[in-house]
Amino acid sequence: MRMRPTLSWTPTEDLPPGTTDPGPVADALSTGGVLVLSGAGISTESGIPDYRGEGGSLSRHTPMTYQDFTGGAQARRRYWARSHLGWRTFGRARPNAGHRAVAAFERHGLLKGVITQNVDGLHQAAGSEGVVELHGSLGRVVCLSCGAFSSRRELAERLGEANAGFEPVAAAMNPDGDADLTDEQVGDFRVVPCTACGGILKPDVVFFGEAVPPRRVEQCRELVREAASLIVLGSSLTVMSGLRFVRQAAEAGKPVLIVNRDPTRGDRHALTRIALPLGTALTTVADLLAIPVDAA
């Protein structure tokens, strides 16, 4: 029997209430050396849904796991049909005020780096350069046989050619770019192989149930060691892949601040949680620091 990944978290202790004062975030940034850890919540204002929180996709959708994807051709057909449709919307998403504020903080030399749990590439699109994509990127595809990388846009063209007339209407889109389709809508969708070796293609993202590459984890741990403080933006910290860096920072005595509307699994390690929308909070912080944020 396969173990399902941890998808939800329920507080088992009384956590301090959030505040609406972003001043502590401005204070931390003003001293520099800040490491940002971002999650799905920073991208909701770009039209990409969250996994958790009010209206989160986990209430109706179980993400594809690595075990399911590699375990059968039908699971891969279902994934690529849904992801092919979702990519059309996902690929059109643009950075919002939160992403642009983070890029502005980096330009002014206030950040040690950005670790993002998101696979949408919006930090880079906003101008951030020192970004570690903890869970990979939907913009790349990797072959599980030969390891060759290719462009997602190129794959979208190939899938479109192989599935002419595939135009179902999705019920919703999810944070991983996976659109909600029924089995009937998926039908006999054709999956295309690697052009180099004919192997199985997978988005270059870490699926639920798949481990983050050890070298990437160590790169993030080194950033935590070098940082003066850690600011979490829009993550519930439900899964250990992000929570471990919060724990590392707290154990090292580094200040941890969280900007998230809802309580998180890392609240007990944080000095405070600011319960504001990310765009509002970060543009306010930029104003406090007199740092201009690029217009949309």
Quick summary of this structure?
This protein is an alpha/beta fold. The protein has helices spanning 23-30, 66-71, 73-90, 97-107, 122-126, 152-162, 183-186, 214-226, 240-251, 278-288; strands spanning 34-38, 111-116, 131-133, 136-143, 149-151, 201-205, 229-233, 256-259, 272-274. The longest helix is centred in the first third of the chain and has 18 residues, at 73-90.
Give a written overview of the molecule.
By secondary structure, the chain is of the alpha/beta class. The chain is 33% helix and 14% strand. Strands 3-2-1-7-8-9 form a six-stranded parallel beta sheet, sandwiched between helices. A three-stranded antiparallel beta sheet has the order 5-4-6. Strand 4 and strand 5 form a beta hairpin. The radius of gyration is 19 Å and the shape is elongated. The model is unreliable at 1-5 and 55-60 (pLDDT under 50).
Order of helices and strands: HEHHHEHEEEHHEHEHEEH
Quickly give the structural class. alpha/beta
Unreliable runs:
1-5, 55-60
Output the radius of gyration. 19 Å
Instruction: Give the overall form.
Output: elongated
Counting DSSP E segments of at least 2 residues, the number of strands comes to 9
Percent range for helical residues? 25-40%
Q: What characterizes the major β-sheet?
A: 6 strands, parallel
Instruction: Kindly estimate the percentage of residues that lie in beta strands according to DSSP.
Output: 5-15%
Mean pLDDT: 90
Q: What is the rounded distance between the termini?
A: 48 Å
Q: Order the strands across the largest sheet as they lie in space.
A: 3-2-1-7-8-9
Please work out how many helical segments DSSP would assign. Answer: 10
